[in-house]
Amino acid sequence: MDRQSFVFYASFYDAIRDLSDNIKLEVFIAITEYALYGKQPENLKPVARGLFTLIKPNLDVSITKFEAGKKGGRKPKKATTATDTPAELHTLVVTPTVPPTYSSFDDEIALLKDEQAWWEPVCMQFHIDRPELDRRLSAFAIHCKVERGTELHSSIKDAKRHFTSWMRKAYAPTERNTNNQPKPDDYTFRGGFGGLD
Predict the structure, then answer these.
(1) In a domain, 38, yes or no
(2) Contacts with 41 (C-beta within 8 Å, 6 or more apart), sequence order
(3) Do 59 and 120 lie in a common domain?
(4) What's the Cα-to-Cα distance from 95 to each of 92, 98, 100, rounded to whole Å?
(5) Is the pTM of the predicted complex or chain greater than 0.85?
(6) Do 108 and 160 contact (CB within 8 A), yes or no?
(7) Is 19 part of a structural domain of the chain?
(8) Is the same domain home to 63 and 113?
(9) Per-10-residue mean pLDDT for the chain, 197 residues long?
(10) Which domain holds residue 155?
(11) Quick check: is 166 in a domain?
(12) Comparing C-alpha atoms, which of 171, 181, 179 is closest to residue 135?
């Protein structure tokens, strides 16, 4: 292996600049002969050998890059054909969009009212009874007709999410007011003005 040049990093210079001239020369020659000719240094003094051992991995990376460059760099990717890859990779899976099984917001509300496994937890979450839920579902249907026009929810699951989100926004202020009513002022005299009674 004969190279015409190599990269001499500033860190190499920083490592050897404060050494005595004879050790500095020894390290410099070891680096140069290894980087240009691939010659392993022999009989280095301990300090020079230690520094060369630390510098050598950087030189090896540089040499590897040089060798790869002589071969033309990275090989181009091979064009894949149908025989190169399994058949399942060529199959495009398309899930059909299933249209909703209802045709109006009123139908959506009817489905929600019939699903006890859904409405019971909703009543518990919002601290309401079933008649209040029915009133709110009716109000939600009106809201959807006004806001969405004729665009139904993509699924009943989407309608459920929209309803609970709408409930948090539409009823939160009134529920906060009823739960946190201020206590009436109490001017009852409980005795004393700082003294013992």
Answers:
(1) yes
(2) 29, 30, 33, 34, 49, 52
(3) no
(4) 10, 9, 15
(5) no
(6) no
(7) yes
(8) no
(9) 81 90 92 89 91 90 79 64 53 56 79 85 87 89 84 85 86 58 64 58
(10) 105-179
(11) yes
(12) 171
